[in-house]
Amino acid sequence: MKTRKILALSMAVATVATVSTAAFAAELTPSSQTGNTEVTANIQDPGAVNYTITIPDKVDFGTLTQPETDTDSFKDVNFTVTATKIENLSDNNRVAVAVKDKDATVDDDQFYITQKTSPNTKLMYLVYDTDTIGESDNHLAEGEMGNDGYNFAYFKNQGQSATGTIRLNQKQLYGKDIAEIAGDYSGTMVFTSSILTF
Amino acid sequence: MKKTKKKTLIIVIISVVIVLALAISAFFIIKSMNNEETQADSNGVVGKVSAGWNTGLPEESKKSTESSSSGTQIPGYGTAKMKAGDTQLHLSIGNPKENNCGFYATLQLEDGTVLYKSELLKPGYGLTEVPLQQTLKKGTYDAEVFYECVTLDEEQSPLNSAKSKFKLVVN
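^ Those are the sequences you sent over. The predicted structure of the assembly is below.
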């Protein structure tokens, strides 16, 4: 009789232990309500993506033309930076975007495209934070370059965009030996984004 | 003598039942832990780049998808947190699937100290647990992920790049 009691007790202990661990496992199942709550919390976790911006993939002036006279000959190309997604941004926060040339330094903070076959052959271009350039508009490099470059845009809401213009004065090509300057040019800009509090 | 034998048998049975119970418990605990790991790794395997990475943000509208086709989407961050001495950081680094270029991602402090440099991240690839090249002391650091964008052909020509700055808090 005593033996039966002990056996029954030990079976009961074993059953309780098994049931309780199975319940613990169920709480961690992704489809459970608890799991969903945790996923929601994870979205706001530090280390998660809070926003995405879309930048122009390259600087492309297309085909340049050597002017016949020593006069201004501008080639303008628009580009757009967009706040593609923004999540959980406080009212007093903005996504700030700055831009600079990839090789910009304190001593030379201008924007350039470089001949691929001859890196010493450079053409300077200007960057404006407007979609059409008026006579009174200043290009970004006329201001002071910060660590991240030149301030370009501030975004509060998803879908906002800012259009800028890159301008190359083909006058730079005037009088040069076409055999030396002909070829493909490329340049890269670096866009720096951060969340600022105002 | 008979009584002693009976006692021994009882002890053996109880021991077997308890061991069995513990084994079953251990099985379910380990199984549940594995389930938890699988869930956490849905955006990337620890320390390894994996496919299926996404920003974790709600799916964008059709309009924003269309606009992204002419540019490159760059993930941005607010803060990241870790403990002093940790060798990995929970940070979602990756290349949004909408892009048509590759990323080389470098996690670095503002002073240029490199903490992690990725292999080529094709669109849709990324990681969420970043192995660090060095540990950090307690403090708040200005950090950034430098996304160097390249074409997906053999030349891997450089495209416009981006830096996403954030505060790295080390407790």
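DSSP finds three helices and nine strands in chain A. Residues 2-43 of chain A form one domain.

Shout if you want it in another format.
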